[in-house]
TrEMBL record:
InterPro entries: Glyco_trans_2-like (IPR001173), Glycosyltransf_2 (IPR050834), Nucleotide-diphossugar_trans (IPR029044). Residues 28-183 form the Glycosyltransferase 2-like domain. Residues 1-25 are annotated as: Disordered. It comes from the Bacteria. It comes from Streptomyces tendae. Pfam families: Glycos_transf_2 (PF00535). This is Glycosyltransferase. Belongs to the glycosyltransferase 2 family. Its EC number is 2.4.-.-. SUPFAM superfamilies: Nucleotide-diphospho-sugar transferases (SSF53448). Keywords: Glycosyltransferase, Transferase. One of its GO terms (molecular function) is glycosyltransferase activity. Signal peptide: none annotated.
Length: 311
């Protein structure tokens, strides 16, 4: 099916949290579609967190009884119902609906480790330029480290004195926490990318506006993805990588040069000055998104025809 660009939520349900504890500064947005069983596990784990986060589920037009299940079993959870499946844009609807200063993202198969939201809030409080942090991700019931953890930790962008962790230009959507104002300032997820490598463009957009994006391994997310193969996923990821390169065409060249300089700096102390100068110019290299020609946008949407995919 195609995915219209201008549909908003049709209904919002809000329930006051019971109990004496006041919700913390980090709210949680969950994007879901037709996964009521795994969503119930996720919500149960999130509501058990000591941080007592506000939880908002954005339903991407589910055709099962997702909303009925939430209303019956988790009345303290807010529900934002969308009339069509908007993919990753559901997260942006959720960010707009929350008023917490920081927003953590979960999918309907992921949740946060106890204490991690508190650690994330501390990073944001202590580093005003921090726009988004990428967590350490543990996968499955045996908590296997996601290979992405090491890739992010070895980012050639290194550290910055006014940011925690290692600077990165990528993250896992269900293992990220954002400063709400920074996320909205960058525009959130692009409507055309839907799902599949949609995070990279948002990382570029945040950096382009001067916000820091870092990997903070003391913040931990648990991810329990469905082991079944996802038909068509590789093609969608390749499409989104191409669209991201088009939308921010100057940037891959700047990043490639930065990687070369970082490699040189490890061997030659004199190369570090050139690396610092290049890093200082990165925000200028990250120019505004280029518009897509209409025929390119129409072609890009063909992969979504007839696709009712969930996150």
């Amino acid at each position: 099916m195609s995915h219209p660009a201008h549909h908003g939520p049709t209904a919002t349900r809000e329930r006051a949290r019971t109990g004496p504890a006041k919700p913390g500064p980090v709210g949680i947005v969950i994007a879901t579609r037709n996964r009521r069983a795994s969503l119930a596990v996720t919500v149960r784990n999130l509501l058990a967190l000591p941080e007592r986060p506000e939880v908002l589920v954005v339903d991407n037009a589910s055709t099962d009884d997702t909303r009925a299940m939430l209303a019956r079993d988790f009345p303290q959870v807010r529900i934002l119902a969308l009339p069509v499946n908007r993919g990753a844009l559901a997260r942006t609807h959720g960010v707009r609906a929350l008023d917490t200063p920081y927003v953590a993202f979960s999918d309907d198969d992921s949740w946060w480790a106890p204490g991690s939201l508190r650690a994330a809030a501390r990073h944001f409080d202590e580093h005003p330029r921090l726009g988004l942090l990428s967590a350490r991700t543990l996968v499955g019931p045996t908590d296997v480290a996601d290979p992405l953890n090491d890739l992010l930790a070895r980012s050639p962008l290194g550290t910055a004195t006014d940011l925690p962790g290692t600077q990165v230009l990528g993250f896992l959507g269900c293992a990220a926490v954002a400063r709400r104002t920074a996320y909205l300032d960058a525009g959130g997820y692009h409507p055309l990318l839907f799902f599949g490598a949609e995070e990279t463009l948002l990382a570029y957009d945040l950096a382009a506006r001067g916000w820091g994006v870092t990997h903070c391994p003391d913040v931990i997310a648990h991810h329990h993805p469905d082991p079944r193969p996802r038909t068509g996923r590789p093609a969608v990821v390749r499409r989104n990588e191409l669209l991201t390169a088009w939308l921010r065409r100057p940037f891959p060249h700047a990043l490639a040069r930065t990687r070369r300089l970082a490699a040189d700096a490890r061997r030659d102390p004199h190369a570090r000055h050139a690396l610092r100068e290049t890093l200082a110019r990165l925000p200028a290299a990250l120019r505004a998104r280029r518009p897509l020609p209409p025929h390119v946008e129409r072609a890009a949407r063909l992969l979504d025809e007839g696709d009712g995919a969930a996150p």
